[in-house]
Specification:
The protein has 460 residues and is α/β, with parallel strands linked by helices. The chain has 4 domains: 5-146 and 367-402, 3-Layer(aba) Sandwich (D-Maltodextrin-Binding Protein, domain 2); 154-160 and 259-366, 3-Layer(aba) Sandwich (D-Maltodextrin-Binding Protein, domain 2), CATH 3.40.190; 162-254; 425-460. Helices cover 45% and strands 17% of the residues. Strands 1, 5, 6, 7, 8, 10, 11, 12, 13 and 14 form a 10-stranded mixed beta sheet that branches. It has a 3-stranded antiparallel beta sheet with strand order 3-2-4. It has a two-stranded antiparallel ribbon with strand order 9-15. It starts with a helix and ends in a 6-residue tail after the last helix. One of its GO terms (molecular function) is ligand-gated monoatomic ion channel activity.
């Protein structure tokens, strides 16, 4: 039976071998390590056993659902490689408080970090974020990954954009259309000047509105036109018909499009919306970074706590929180991107729908690594093997394997096409434009009546 690591490391020959040859070192007679971990998808998955001998994956890391048999996932693979190459066995335990670990006001540490600091365990899987405070009390291996934090929110109900009729053509096309209208109008006026017809402002306005009526498929009464004018107006009529057909067909397609709101993309949006509540995990690097922020958006996010807009939930309860608070569209999660992606993947596996999304803004990016006791001689040997796995791309591959379903939602469309009857809620923008035009036309008509009464000679 292998001896505990503490006893093995008391052998001077073992210590000398580790110090001189960390790349090739192996425990000749083996060693037994105490390893602590907690359920943290996609990195660690606990496998629990029941009294009848059946096994199942822990849905939240609660030990009362069964006894811990083993762990699976990327960090379990890393541990297996280390155990094989260094020739040690290990026993898995979990922290009594089921926490990663944070420093208390009295200077002591909780969670897995507390176990390492108190020398109750030899290795903590994590992976843990590398911070200055942690480097002072524990030994950190070579980084396993670099991860950042982002917001997770629920997608809103599908809605129609009532102003979609303005988006049928790009702004550049609208500008070109207006420029072409002015060009044709100027060319027409030049033809009138060449054939020496009398030109006044009434004729200029009349020709302009003729061109505009043609573009809107309205009837036009042409009088005293020459062959050159007919050619010009024929070209304009053909171009206007093509543009009108393109516009009407694309508008029909746009009316069938439903937009899926994904408005919470930045911390600023979260801060400025008083209806939103932030969900955090207590005693983590996120809460520490927010508390130590002196200015900027992170400081404003920290102030949400005093405003009653922050809720603290253990990471094991995130799946249930996702189905309750976050789905109500008034709560958002802030956590590591890999964990947020795992929650979306699990939700898609259960429902077949991409009901959540991640924000574009990423914050608090740092390195994550495993933890050993401070000054532990096996740190160089572990770090070398971890670096070999990272450089080979193994850890990234293992994580991506656990996030297969997330790829379905990672680039899900922000709009969908439906077949349904057109409702007033989808076209009220066009109705507003129509009635605004009618009001303007009516006002113009009455202005003309008033002018005609004041200046009777203007009627001729």
């Amino acid at each position: 039976m292998a001896r505990p690591l503490k006893e093995v490391l008391q052998d001077p020959e073992v210590l000398a071998d580790i110090h001189q040859h960390p790349h090739t070192f192996r425990f000749c007679r083996g060693a037994s390590l105490l390893v602590t971990s907690t359920h943290w998808p996609p990195h660690n998955y606990f496998v629990l056993g029941s009294a009848d001998g059946t096994k199942g994956e822990d849905d939240g890391g609660h030990k009362e659902t069964g006894s811990l048999v083993a762990i699976e996932g990327p960090m379990a693979n890393v541990l297996s490689v280390l155990a094989h190459t260094l020739n040690f066995t290990y026993k898995l335990i979990t922290p009594s408080d089921n926490l990663w670990g944070g420093q208390l006001p009295n200077g002591s540490w909780t969670g897995m970090l507390g176990q390492v600091i108190k020398k109750e365990v030899d290795l903590a899987l994590g992976p843990f974020s590398v911070t200055l405070e942690r480097t002072k009390v524990v030994g950190l291996t070579t980084g396993v990954m670099i991860d950042d934090r982002c917001l997770l929110a629920a997608k809103g109900a599908t809605e129609v954009n009532p102003w979609s009729f303005l988006m049928v053509l790009m702004p550049s096309v609208w500008v070109c259309l207006a420029a072409t209208l002015l060009l044709v109008w100027g060319t027409h006026m030049l033809l009138v000047f060449v054939i020496k017809r009398p030109v006044d402002w009434k004729l200029m306005v009349e020709i302009y509105f003729r061109l505009l009526r043609t573009l809107f498929n309205q009837n036009v009464n042409w009088r005293s036109v020459t062959s050159l004018e007919r050619v010009l107006m024929g070209v304009w009529l053909l171009g206007g018909l093509v543009m009108t057909w393109c516009y009407s067909s694309n508008l029909t397609s746009l009316l069938a499009v439903r937009r899926i709101p994904q408005s919470i993309q930045t911390l600023r949006t979260l801060i400025d919306d008083p209806s939103l509540t932030l969900i955090l995990t207590p005693n983590t690097i996120i809460t520490t970074a927010l508390a130590h922020s002196q200015e900027g958006e992170l400081k404003e996010v920290h102030r949400l706590d005093s405003a009653g807009r922050t809720v603290y939930v253990q990471i094991n309860d995130f799946p249930r929180t996702l189905d309750t608070l976050v789905k109500q569209d008034d709560h958002v999660l802030l956590g590591t991107t890999s964990v947020m992606a795992t929650l979306i993947a699990q939700s898609f596996s259960q429902t077949g729908e991409c009901s959540f999304y991640l924000s574009r803004q990423k914050v608090i990016s740092n390195i994550h690594s495993m933890v050993v006791q401070q000054g532990s001689p096996i740190l160089p040997a572990i770090s070398y093997r971890v670096r070999q796995m990272i450089e080979a791309g193994l850890y990234t591959h293992w994580v991506e394997t656990r996030l297969r379903n997330y790829t379905r939602c990672r680039k899900s469309p922000s709009s969908i096409t439906v077949r349904t009857s057109i409702a007033l809620t989808g076209i009220w923008g066009m109705v507003v434009v129509l009635y605004a035009g009618l009001v303007a036309a009516t006002a113009t008509f009455f202005v003309e009546l008033v002018i005609a009464r004041i200046y009777p000679a203007a009627q001729t």
